[in-house]
Input
Amino acid sequence: MVLFYQTALAQNVGIGLSNPAYKLDIKGRIRIKPDSLGQSGATPGMWLDNYLTGTEQAFIGMENDIYAGFYGKAGAGWGINFNTQTGNVNMGNSAYNLYRLNLSSNDFGLALYDGSNNFYGGFKTDGQGNLSILSANGTSFPARPVKHIILNPPSQGLGFTPGNVGIGTNAPDYKLTVQSGRVETNTNTSLLRLSGQNPVMVLSDAVSDYAYIKAWTYQPYSGFSNGLVLGAAPGNAIFLSTNYSPTVVIASNNNVGIGTSSPAYTLSVNGTIQAKELRVETGWADYVFDKTYTLEPLSKVEEYIRSNKHLKNIPSAEDIVHNGLQVAQVQTQMMQKIEELTLYVIQLQKEINQLKKKRK
Output
């Protein structure tokens, strides 16, 4: 060992060099050994004093037989330590050392500043299992987010603007904006997949649920089969809209309206219906041909028509205007009149045949 001692005025000591510039100037490695093996508080290291009070402030050295680090006597404890077996670095608590860098804090975890001491982002925990990724432009943490957070290139990654999240874009204009320029061979652009057993997405405000979109994939309820379900919470309707106006509505009483938002019947249509065929399941009027059926004399029929201006049991024009045409009912009543007319014609034919016989 070569030991040099400078002038009494400078009082610098050098080990391995002849011109020490500091109180202790060493050329080469230093090895610090414990006072005694296995004794608590005897781990090797070096104390640093507070330059104002001259009291012990910080310790640099071994925490135990595994960890080396920095100890703050004023309350920080082992704020930073290094696991000599795994290479993991811990900040805040040496008990959490599962990863290469472990941050333990119930407040702020990691803050990122630029060269002018402006805060631009960070990671924060609240001690209740929640993790926040923050973005801001200011000198204090936390600050109101006004900057973007971009993960990966905008065309592939995740971007944030104040209150909005973008996937594939760094300028989302809604709470969640998903954008992709990739078009599949089937001309589709795949943007979102909800996967799971009976996956459901609920639409609500801060207080109540209003509607949901669900895929039945497993054990559907009675009346359902596997497929897509559009649903509304009890008391709410489902609307299909075009041009920002309701086109089809399924009311909370299960009535369906087309062209009307207040359907009064199981199906209410405000407009014209075109169909190849219409099937109405109802009763029919074949009871007219029963032997017990009483056919009114034509004189009575004529008397009723003169008084009421319409056939008996057939709605009047005024009824149709005010109440509409009940297709099943009126079809049955019209068939009743047709069958009655057939019986009248048969009667007349019999009378004609009798007259012909008399003339002979």
